[in-house]
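Project standup — Tuesday

K.O.: blocked on the structure for the chain from last sprint. Re-posting the sequence here as requested.
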Amino acid sequence: MKVGEAMTRDVRIVSPEQTIREAAQEMARIDAGVLPVGENDRLVGMITDRDIAVRAVAEGKSPDVKVRDVMSGQVLYCYENDDLDDVAKNMGEMKVRRMPVLDRDKRLVGILSLGDVALNDKPKSTAQALAHISEHGGKHSQSAH
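H.V.: unblocked you, prediction finished:
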């Protein structure tokens, strides 16, 4: 199965110039814990509810601080025609629960979550990815910002 068959296509994007308050409000509105950050029709980062809590609130930053100041700038992504099992394995190794999905022109076309993998009858891939993600550390560890 290809990633494009499992991913969520309706993805909201925030600008790096929006405030973290606006990002958090959008997350609440769509019931999501992550938003891709886009600028000039390109993906430039990702912001999670955890980024807001740990990199902003815990450090006493204002709700009016810009998304750019707390987002993860290193974007790990996959392509819509990648194999779902391979991407699930990579998500586990990279310790990420969600991954933006790009087309071959590097345009955002969706987002793949562990839930998407699980819903597409891939329990072994999901279990293996979650086991690795649950280990301490990784590229997106809050202590490695």
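K.O.: great, moving the ticket to review. Residues 139-145 have pLDDT under 50 and may be disordered. The chain has one domain: 3-135.
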